[in-house]
Structure formats: C-alpha cells, structure tokens
Amino acid sequence: MSPIISVQQLNKTYDSGFQALKDVNLEIRRGEIFALLGPNGAGKTTLISVICGIVNPTAGTVLADGHDIVRDFRAARSTIGLVPQELSTDAFETVWATVTFSRGLFGKPKNPAYVEKVLRDLSLWDKRKEKIIALSGGMKRRVMIAKALAHEPRILFLDEPTAGVDVELRRDMWEMVRGLRENGVTIILTTHYIEEAEEMADRVGVINRGEIVLVENKHTLMEKLGRKELRLQLSEPLSAVPESLAPMSLTLSADGHELVYSFDARHEHGDIAGLLRRLGELGIEFRDLRTRESSLEEIFVDLVHNGTPGGTDTPQPAAGDSQ
Amino acid sequence: MNLHAIRAIYLFEMARTWRTLMQSIASPVISTSLYFVVFGSAIGSRMVEIDGISYGAFIIPGLIMLMLLNESISNASFGIYMPKFSGTIYEVLSAPVSYVEVVLGYVGAAASKSIILGLLILATSRLFVDFGIEHPFAMLFFLVLTAVTFSLFGFIIGIWADGFEKLQIIPMMIVTPLTFLGGTFYSVNMLPPFWQTVTLFNPVVYLISGFRWSFYGVADVNVAVSLGMTVMFMLLCLATIWWIFKTGYRLKS
C-alpha cells in the first residue's frame, strides 16, 4: 500500500540562513498514528508547516495522498487537517460559526449533520452557541480539533495536541485520536510528552537539528533499543558485589539491599537465569524481584543528546524502519 | 474555483460587520452626517454656488468619497491583518484556496461594506441637502470601482502591517490629507494655477472629480482621465497582491 504522506529530500532554509530541515525523507503509512519527537527547535513544526502549505519548502517534494503539495495543492490540502500548537481562534465567533467556516474554507458544502457529529464527538455540542473567548483552554483546544476535522480530512496533524491541558482532558484526547484512527484517519502528532507517544503511537520518528534521526515501530524501538533492569530485593544486605559476579553488569544500592542487573533488551533476557543460578550457588537469597524497561523518554534522550539510542553505538537508519 | 471558500470568507467577514454594527455602520454614517450639518447646512448656506451647484450639494460626492476611501482601506486591512495578528491565518494558508479566491473573499466583503455605507450616507445626505444624480449608473460604477480598488489597497496595507500603528499610518497620514486636498470641499479650478498643477499629482482628485461628474455633470478633469487613473491604480494593486502571494511576503516563511 502506498504511503499516505511521502517526503523526499525536503530542505528548508529560512531567510536568516537557519536550515530548519536537512534532506528529510519520511513516509507515513495509511491509518497509522505516527509520533514525531524532537527537542525544541528540532524542525517538527517546520516539517508539518511545509506539508500543510504554511511554509514554502526550499527544495524537495512532498506528496499527500499521492498529490504534490505545490503542483496539486488543492487536492493535497483537501486531504489534510491541521491542529496547530498555538490556540489560534477567532475569539468573538461562536463555536458553531467557526467550525462551519472551516468546512467552507476547505471547499466542502454545508453539512450541519456532520458538524453536529464532530461537535458531539468532542463534547462541544452544548457549547456550540458560545463565543470562543468564553471557553476554557481545554475547550478551545477541542474547538481547534473540531475545525481541523470539519472538512473530513484523511490526514490529521496534531502539533502538541495536549500541551497545557489537564490529565483528564489529555486522556479524552487520546481516546478521541484512537477513535479517529479507527475511522481510517491517519494521525501525525508531535509531542513533548513521551508518554503520549508511548501510549498512542504505532511508529515513532525522532527529528533533531532538522534531520530525521530515526523512524521505528514503537514496540520494536523499545525492544531493540531500550534497556531492561532486573531489581532484586535481597534478604540480607551485601557489602559489595561478589567478585565472581563482576563480569555481569551489576550495581548494588547504597544500603546493600538491592542488586540491580542492567542489560540490553536486544539480548532477549540477558543472562537472568545465569545470574539467579550464581546467586543460589553463592547462598545469596532474595525476597522480591521486578523488571523494568527503558521508557521511550530515556531512549529519546539518549538519541538526541548522546546520538546513540539506549547507549548503544550502532548507527541508526535515517528513515524507514525494520517492518 | 473554490466557491465554498470564497463564500465562507465573505460571510465570515460580513458577520463581523453585523456583529459590530455601531462601529462598522453607524459610526461612519453619523460622522459624515456631521459634515453635512456643519459644512452643508450651517456654513454652506452662507457660501456661494460652485459651478452652479449649491455648496451643500457640491461637497456630497467628495464626502462620500472621503468615507469610501477610508472605510475600504480600513475594512480590508483589518480583515486580513486580524487573522495574521491572532494566528488564525494558518487556516487560510493551509486551505485549498488560491490567492484569487482569498482576495475575492476578503476584498469582496470589504468593498461590500463600503458600498453599503456609501449608499447609506447618500441616503442620509438627502435629509440635509437637496440634490439630484445626473448619471446614476455612472455614479454606481464609480462607487463600486473605488470601493474595490481601495479595498485592494487596504488588503495590501493589512499584509504589510506588522502592528496596529502601521494599519493606521497610511489612512491617517496619506489618504485623509490627499482626500481633503483633492477637492472634497472645493473645486480645483478655485486654486491658483500653480497649485492646480500640483493638485493634478494627487490621485484622489481624479476619483472625486469623476464621482462628482456622475452627480452634476461637471468635473475638474476629464471623466475618461478619472476612470483611467482609477483603473490604473486598481491594476497596480492587483499586481502587488499577485507578487505578495507569489513570494509569500509577510504571509509565509
């Protein structure tokens, strides 16, 4: 199946000389939730803005559902909905008017039944007659989403969708995004909240300094690049890690009650069986054990700051993934 | 052609007018009426006729033109500046609309408001001064042409402006003085020869002269020249707007 978005050799250099995007290649699959991660200034918003037509590219091509965003901009833009990072709304318009306006702007005839459905899905129906200025920040965010969905897009960009919203609303948003995906909408979201990507995304892309550092299936990424820990609560404290266990990557807590075995998740389960056998041989007993995986956040920090995911030294692919 | 988009922008802009009825409609009608009261009825009754027309009637085309220019510029510049200021311009830029459709929506709405206002002031002036219109269709043509042309000009100002102050600079510092010095309250022929020549460099002279001709059949300059100058200015505005959208000047990074 052809990708719904195809970005080829995309470059963007601003008038100031700052190169925001460097030879970006990226393919988004139909019907997936794709999370684009990156620190501030990495190029996330510029990439989205170019695809949506808000920023002119310096070089490269972008196809949205097979349509070139420059040559065939009408068809390309008709397929895309955008929820920008900033809460940019017409303060004195009513919710109903602004959503209806968005539908018309994207070339769709009036369809009050569809607008009603969007507003109901976003719990905005009761607020339809209210002016946007009177809404809370969370409600305004919902209005932005309603506007983006008003023309029935097949691709939805969510630029930091849950920035500044409370936990409950964030959960609601996640549910809504999943619901959209079930209806066949492809979702691309940028976020600072790693748990958001971890919770929702099918695939994760990491951008840093204008370059796509990695694109990977979320689970594969965590399995391949994450680190795991086995934490053993010892029955009796140890003063030091026994010498015979020195070759294994073990650390002992300050009070001597916890032994931590860290291993690369790519190596299946490390040598847990070997460790437990050796502990038995040494007469070291434990009363509890638990394992913990690296979070996406830790992987992301490693990628961005150390250039090596999960502390490994393996160069990562710039685009595409192993699936 | 994305007709739904043009309609959406147009209705959205017009809705703003109806929402701010006092500011958009009542205020310019009242302020122009004050000119009629002061210059038309009070002072005008003591003034001599100009070109055989009573002073009160003589100033009507000029006053309508004064309001028309200011309102066209103000409506159009504000209409496109506000989305830039509030950030909602992202939606227009990311929509499947061409610049022609954007201009038709915004400029069409701004010009519509000005034309409605022009007709309202024309009707109001009849309460204060007795006058006739010799060429009503030509009058309407000049009214529409001027409203569209100066709405285009206002659209350019709205894109160029990066602050509220700049929105006001050109209407306040250039357009209003040119209108006052363009024959609103006097005939150019009343000036000394040197200043008559200088006045011909003022483009507003041609607008007022052509408009006044449609009312009374008398003009300071040939009506064809008035029409030609107005059309030329409109083409200049269209060319500037084409360049703005081609380059993304102050719209796109």
TrEMBL record, chain B:
Localization in the cell: Cell inner membrane; Membrane
Superkingdom, natural source: Bacteria
Transport found in the keyword field: yes
Keyword tRNA-binding among record annotations: no
Domain ABC transmembrane type-2, first and last residues per copy: 19-248
Keywords, in A-Z order: Cell membrane, Membrane, Transmembrane, Transmembrane helix, Transport
Membrane-spanning residues: 21-40, 52-69, 140-161, 167-188, 200-219, 225-245
InterPro entries xref list: ABC-2_transport_permease, ABC2_TM, ABC2_TM_bact-type, ABC_2_transport
Record's bilayer topology term: Multi-pass membrane protein
Similarity section: Belongs to the ABC-2 integral membrane protein family.
The protein's name in its UniProt record: Transport permease protein
